[in-house]
C-alpha cells in the first residue's frame, strides 16, 4: 500500500486547517484518522458532520457505542476498535458492554443485543434487511427512527473504517493500550 500523509496544522491545506482545529478542540489533539482525512477536506468535513449528527440521535451513549463498535468489529478496523474503546470508556459505557462488543460475545441485555444484531444485518446485507430483521428490531423496542439512525452511524463508520484500511492509520497513543485484532 502507498503511504498516506497524516496532516497536521502545518502541512494541511488552508481548507483543511480549520477542520483540524475543530478536531483539536473536540479531542484535545488531532486524531491520526483526521490527519489522513485532511488530504480530502470534504471527507474530513463530512465525517465531522456525520459524527456530530450521530451524537444527537435518540441513542444513548451505550447504544451509540453498540452501533459504532459492531460496525468497527465487523469491518475489522484496527484503528477504530481501539479508538472507540477509549471513547466508550470516556462516555462511561459499562466495561461488560465494551468487552462483549470487542470479543463478539453476548451483550448484557436483549435490547442491546437486538441493536447489535440489526446493525450487523444492515452492514452485512448492505441495507437489504428482511422483514424479519426489522420485526425483531421493532419487537426489542426500537422504531423507524432508530432504523434510520443506524444508517447514519453506518455511513460515518464506512468513511473511517475504509480510510483506515487503505491508509493503515497508526493507532493514536492514548488508544494503543486498547489494541485489537479480530478473534478467529
Attribute tags:
0% strand, single chain, 62% helix, mainly alpha, AhpD-like, 184 residues
Q: Can you describe this structure?
A:
With 184 residues, the chain is mainly alpha-helical. The chain has two domains: 38 residues, no CATH class; 120 residues, AhpD-like (Up-down Bundle), CATH 1.20.1290. The chain is built from nine helices and no strands. The protein is globular and about 50 Å long. The protein starts with 16 loop residues before the first helix and ends in a 17-residue tail after the last helix. The mean pLDDT is 97.
In whole angstroms, the N-to-C terminal distance is 24 Å
CATH topology annotation of the largest domain: AhpD-like
Kindly name the structural category.
mainly alpha
C-alpha Rg (nearest Å): 16 Å
**Average pLDDT:** 97
Number of strands: 0
Number of domains: 2
Q: So what's the CATH class of the largest domain?
A: Mainly Alpha
Sheet-strand content, in percent, reads: under 5%
Unreliable stretches: none
The name of the CATH superfamily of the largest domain reads: AhpD-like
- The coarse silhouette is globular
Count every helix, treating DSSP H or I runs of 4 or more residues as helices: 9
Helix content: 55-70%
Amino acid at each position: 500500500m502507498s503511504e498516506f500523509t497524516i496532516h497536521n496544522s502545518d502541512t494541511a491545506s488552508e481548507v483543511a486547517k480549520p477542520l483540524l482545529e475543530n478536531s483539536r478542540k473536540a479531542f484535545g489533539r488531532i486524531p491520526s484518522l483526521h490527519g489522513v482525512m485532511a488530504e480530502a477536506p470534504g471527507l474530513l468535513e463530512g465525517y465531522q458532520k456525520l459524527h456530530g449528527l450521530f451524537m444527537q440521535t435518540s441513542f444513548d451513549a451505550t447504544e451509540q457505542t453498540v452501533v459504532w463498535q459492531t460496525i468497527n468489529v465487523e469491518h475489522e478496523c484496527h484503528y477504530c476498535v481501539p479508538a472507540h474503546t477509549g471513547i466508550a470508556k470516556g462516555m462511561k459505557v459499562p466495561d461488560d458492554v465494551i468487552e462483549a462488543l470487542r470479543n463478539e460475545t453476548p451483550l448484557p441485555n436483549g435490547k442491546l443485543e437486538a441493536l447489535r444484531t440489526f446493525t450487523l444485518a444492515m452492514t452485512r446485507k448492505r441495507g437489504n434487511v428482511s422483514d424479519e430483521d426489522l420485526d425483531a428490531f421493532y419487537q426489542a423496542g426500537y422504531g423507524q427512527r432508530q432504523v434510520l439512525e443506524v444508517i447514519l452511524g453506518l455511513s460515518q463508520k464506512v468513511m473511517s473504517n475504509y480510510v483506515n484500511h487503505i491508509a493503515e492509520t497508526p493507532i493514536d497513543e492514548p488508544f494503543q493500550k486498547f489494541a485489537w485484532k479480530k478473534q478467529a
